[in-house]
What we know:
The complex is a heterodimer of chains A (362) and B (81). With 362 residues, chain A is α/β, with parallel strands linked by helices. Helix content of chain A is 34%, strand content 17%. In chain A, helix 1 packs across helix 10, helix 2 packs parallel to helix 15 and helix 7 (137-149) packs across helix 11 (249-258). Chain A is globular, with a radius of gyration of 21 Å. In chain B, 32% of the residues lie in helices and 41% in strands. The A-B interface holds A 25-27, 54-55, 80-82, 109-113, 131-132, 135-136, 138-139, 142, 187, 190-191, 212-213, 241-244, 248, 250-251, 254, 346 and B 1-2, 4, 28-29, 31-34, 43, 45-48, 50-51, 53-54, 56-57, 60, 64.
Amino acid sequence: MKLDIEILLKELNEVKTPINIMEVCGTHTMAICRNGIKDIISKNINLISGPGCPVCVTSDIDIDRIYEVALVEGTITATYGDMLRVPGSKPEISLIKAKSKGADVRVVYSAMDALSLAEDNPQKCIVFLGIGFETTAPATATLIKEAKENGIENLRVLSLHKKVEPIMKSILNNEDLNIDGFLIPGHVASIIGRVGFDFMKDYGCIGAVAGFDGEEILYALHRIVQARDENVFDVFNCYKRAVRDLGNPLAMDVIREVYHETDVNWRGLGVIENSGLGINDKYTQFDIEKDPNYRSIMMQTEPSEKNKACVCGEILMGKKMPFECPAFAETCTPLSPLGPCMVSSEGSCAAFYKYERREGLK
Amino acid sequence: MCLGVPLKIVEIQGKKGIGEVRGVIKEFRLDYLREPKVGEFVMVHAGFAIEKIDNDTFNEIVTELEALNQKIMELENRYET
């Protein structure tokens, strides 16, 4: 599909009625910043970064638990790389800090790498951190299924997977926010389909599944604005080359087989009902929360200390901009992050620090 | 974790696919694709192909990644001199 960018930009600069559009994908956050999109469209289009980075919304208590788990003797913690530096309730609590204290922490590219680790290290317990929205949930599910088929006994999974729909509904129900449209995360939509976002229509909200390059984001923004002007409240697929209407049925089947919905804690946002994916009883042998060796750690309910300076929660909900955080670019920087929005390479604060700092805005 | 990598399937071994992009070979899983075929292009996310893509999309993404890589190399050279 060839896009006439000049026409899109012209029309996006002619928007007179303010519109609030939120993105809920860390990659979109970065793409918007990297492409300078806010600077080339009308200021009446208010782009808001929402809670789209699954690393950013992992609660501090979960990070504290992960830290303790990693330090258990005989444990190999397998994780995606972006979890390494995320601080828990204190800056000194993180996987990289645990590693510096002697914990065996391995960065993996794929969930299936954890299976290889379990096969190669029969005397160790491999704990895989299942992080991500619906895009990575099938991968963790496949890991669990294959471990069971292969009779693997030394693998445990901490499922911190979350669903996008509940957090978007939470935002739509929030009276402080007034979101007219969403840029829908493309790869989540690859799994759950365009139809997975149809719930937005019940809220009179417009959605556009967006790709990840600058042109694709402009196209999706244009679609939302156009729909608003035409009073058409629908969910549009602007990333057809990678997203189908019904998504990926095979991936959805494995999600339904392995997981059930649970209430989970989102960093800075609190507990959101039915927003997490817990492991079904059929696969309970792999659920770290059921393992007696780790139960006391998993039953911790409160972080040891709350960081009062960090306002990641409000930033994640789009209520504040990064520069409105008192710690931003002062005590909280990419080299010494206080919260997940700065640590994660796709967090709002990291994106803002890298691309959007201006004179007078730190 | 969130990076999607486009690959061309060059070999299929059961549930595993071997993909190639600009001479780089990568293994990934095919569990979520219906009837994948050698020669098809896929989007790989955290070790799993999540969707098939067309040739144009593959080339566009690869071109973007190459431009990014070139920029990174320029910046590295600048800081070394």
